[in-house]
Amino acid sequence: MAQLSRDDVLKLAHLGRIELEEDEVDKFAAEFDAILKYVEQLQTVDIDGLEPTSQVTGLMNVTRADEVIDYGYQAKDLLRNVPQVENDQIKVKRMIV
Amino acid sequence: MADDEWTIESEGWPSVAELAKRVRRGQLKSVDLVEKSLRTIADKQEYHAVLATLETRAHARATEIDQRIAAGETVGRLAGVPFIAKDNFLVFGSETTAASNILKGFEAPYQATAIEKLEAEGAICVAKANLDAFAHGTSTENSDFGATKNPHDMERIPGGSSGGSAAAVVLQLAPFALGSDTGGSIRQPASMSGCVGFKPTYGSVSRSGVVAMASSLDAIGPLATSVEDAALVFDVMAGRDPLDSTTIERAAEDFTRLEGSLIGKRIGVIQEYMGEGLQPNVKEVLDKALDKLKAAGAIIEPVSLPSLPMALAVYYILCPAEVSSNLSRYDGQRYGFSYGDASDLQESFAKTRDIGFGKEAKRRIMIGTYVLSSGYYDAYYKRAQTVRTKIINEYNAAFKHVDFLFGPTAPSTAFKLGEKVGDPMQLYLEDIMTVAVNMAGVPAISVPAGMSEGLPVGLQLMAPQRHDAALLIAAKQVEGILA
After folding, report:
1. Are B441 and B201 in contact (CB under 8 A)?
2. Tens digits of per-residue pLDDT, B361-375?
3. Contact B85/B130 with Cβ under 8 angstroms?
4. Overall average pLDDT of the A52-63 stretch
5. Chain A from 32 to 91: CB within 8 A of any B CB
6. For residues B302 and B318, what is the distance between their CA atoms, to the nearest angstrom?
7. What separation in angstroms does the CA of B271 have from each of A38, B56, B413, B431, B475?
8. Chain B residues within 8 A of A97 when measuring between CB atoms
9. In chain B, which residues have their Cβ closer than 8 Å to the Cβ of A78?
10. Chain B hits for A13, Cβ within 8 Å
């Protein structure tokens, strides 16, 4: 399957919102090749008639009543880890420029 | 040492049940147990098993428990017993970092359900254990705060990712510890450090308040010095939790009832794990163990699960895919490390994640993003999920003929610190005998099988989903036979 170019790695980094150092790009490209080469063996497995599995214990549509549950948390405690708070709200940089 | 000979001056700990019993009867003070645990942690700092202690909170809780007992109140089944949680559990009283720089300084605003349940029975979290950052790793060398050392040889790794928890148990820093297991992270360090590590059926223990890695595989479980201790801790933690919709109803049975026998039990030895890739000295220890189990009346037979060699390839598609999604929340805006000098939001995300994440997290985010991207989804992700079905089918077929499956926990004994750093594929291969269990969601336990050249070797027993009680009973028998 496809070999990853520098541009591919930079694109993946951008999609994952990671800025890479210049010297990391080639290193990651080589490592990804090794990993992708390893997982290529899956192409040889006969999966005819099988469905994909994402949940293993057979649970389906787990729901609960649409009720507000008071866990006793205080807003100020939940905001304690926020880098920038203004008027008890999370402050971020402008999104639409 | 027999439980009844143990005193607070003795080295190490008696069983968890014995400790709690004596605390409840007022024969032992919880504050003394916490003190002993914290002192041992300080004495054995050079192993770097622990990232932080929760001294103030632990003392306060111990004092309260002692007062309640003095006042004649009922304190639970783990009354006053100290424990250590892997640092990916949200716990009050210290930072929760998952051993990643991106969570440095993060103070949990709520606690993991597992911690709440242990506390409700009187247990006291005294420290947070080291791990590979975000539980990505098999050696604990991927911690952003430095590697943990193997209790048997300081030049070697303790296993991972719950390497701090395993080392903590073996160094007797506390009577038990908690870990998480996505591809072997409880069992593999238990094997390499020399303790019991139990990964229960998927969904048995709530993952609420545990830093998510790969949610379709993540399981919570205990590391302990004995199967009995592990079973008691599991019994307290197991059960449905409205805060984790993947949790299952717990079985009616009491997991601490461990009477039973191996006579006539069919144990299938997984052939795919016993050949190529298994270090000969590990095989030797396991073969001896199998002989003893046979002599004790178990029926030992070879079993083949032909797709198991594919499990690691499946894992290294599914796991990064889920990781790339779970790690998207670390954006520097709501909690954790935040890059302060960004000129706009995109730069803030990118710089925060570049500085905050280590190489392995970045690697998994990018691989995960790749295998989930529209052009490659069918070839990688969907195919991996389908091979997962095939592996599950093979487990189900095997369990029609045998009660338990048997294999090594890890392909080798603990390797040297630094030996495999810088080669991700080499480190990934460490999980080759543990990942398939997570694919199938079945319970598995690593029990010490013996020593080879001064290093511990673990054996792995597996059972069908929701047969955790039977597995613990068998593991207790195995432990007794090999002792």
Report:
1. yes
2. 999 999 999 999 989
3. no
4. 93
5. 32, 34-35, 38-43, 45, 47, 50-57, 59, 62, 64, 69, 71, 73, 77-78, 80-84, 90
6. 29
7. 22, 51, 19, 17, 20
8. 344
9. 109
10. 362, 366
Out of B105, B367, B387, the one facing A47 most closely (by C-beta) is B387
Specify whether the backbone of B202 is left (phi greater than 0), alpha (psi in -120 to 50) or beta: beta
* Both tokens assigned to B299: 């029926």
The boundaries of the domain holding residue B148 are 3-237
d(CA A38, CA B71): 62
Helix and strand totals (H; E) in chain B: 16, 11
Considering the domain boundaries, does residue B422 fall inside one? Answer: no
| Active site (annotated) includes residue B185 | yes
SS3 B255: coil
Taking the Cβ of residue B426 and every Cβ of chain A, the question of whether any pair is shorter than 8 Å is answered with no
Count structural domains, chain A: 1
DSSP letter (8 states) at residue B189? H
A81 falls within a domain: no
Contact at 8 Å (CB) between B309 and B347?
A: no
* Chunked mean pLDDT (size 10), chain B, 483 residues: 91 97 97 98 98 98 98 96 98 96 95 98 98 97 98 98 98 98 98 98 98 97 98 98 95 91 98 93 98 98 96 96 97 95 94 96 96 93 98 98 98 96 83 96 98 98 97 98 95
Tell whether B42 is covered by a domain. Answer: yes
Give the ipTM of the model, two decimals please: 0.95
Domain hosting residue A37, numbered range: 6-44
**The pair of three-digit structure tokens given for residue B483, joined into one six-digit string:** 């002792």
Phi then psi dihedrals of residue B407, to 5 deg? -165, 175
How far apart, in whole angstroms, are the C-alpha atoms of residue B55 and residue B38? 8
* Domain membership flag for residue A33: yes
pLDDT in tens, B111-157: 999 999 999 999 999 999 999 999 999 999 999 999 999 999 999 99
Domain assignment of residue B132, yes or no: yes
pLDDT for position B422: 78
Is A24 inside any structural domain?
yes
Number of domains comprising chain B: 1
SS3 B34: helix
CATH of the domain at B121: 3.90.1300.10
pTM of the model: 0.97
The percentage of residues in chain B with a pLDDT greater than 70, rounded to a whole number, is 100
In this predicted structure, what is the pLDDT of residue B60?
98
User: Is the residue at A28 inside a domain?
Assistant: yes
Residue B107 maps to a domain: yes
Tokens of residue B264, six digits? 């006539």
Number of neighbours of residue B415 by Cβ within 10 angstroms: 22
Closest CA to B381 of B132, B214, B207: B214
